[in-house]
Amino acid sequence: MFDKIKKLRAESTDIIDDITSLREEMASLRTLLQEERDALERARKDQAALLLQLKEDTRAMKSLHSGVEKELRKWQSLQSDVSRTLSEKLEKELAEVTKFAKDQLYVDISREKALKERVEKTALELVRLQDQVEKLTLVTSTIKASDFELSAFIKDMRRENKEKLALLAEVDQLKSLMAKMKQRPKRGPAF
User: Fold this and answer.
1) Whole-angstrom distance, CA of residue 141 vs CA of residue 143
2) Residue ranges of domains in the chain
3) Residues 57-66: contacts with CB under 8 Å, at least 24 apart
4) pLDDT for 37-93, tens place per residue?
5) Would the pTM of this model clear 0.90, i.e. be above it?
6) What does the CA dihedral 45, 49, 54, 56 come to, rounded to 10 degrees?
């Protein structure tokens, strides 16, 4: 029995050692469990903080998205207004430029017509002038240089002037003779 007791004691020591070892393991597992619980608690807190941050970020993103949509609508409206205004101004400017060009074209056409008429009149006048020049050339080709000399003309004039003076002297003589004849008494016929 003593052996049995020794055996039991040895077994009990083993059991006590096992229990001590199990207690140490349990203590270590408890510590590990507590660390895991603490880590889990920290993870839950971090998760809650992240969830809260995510909710806040989601609200901010929704608000930002709403603001972006509003700004986008404003931008699209502004772009549409600018496009419409630009289109209207462009059409107006184009109409004015077209009208000015059209008016200028009419003015240029009327000037061209007037200029064409003047050119045609000038061409006719030039033809007439050319005819007259040809006639003048024909006449001048028949004229001799001697026709332009005045010495013969002056000689003729001097001769004619002498004849005229001689005739005037004769007229004066005849007049005085007639005056004398009128002053004499009339006599009858001298037979």
Assistant:
1) 6
2) 2-102, 149-180
3) none
4) 888 898 889 888 989 999 998 999 898 888 889 988 888 888 888 888 988 998 999
5) no
6) 150
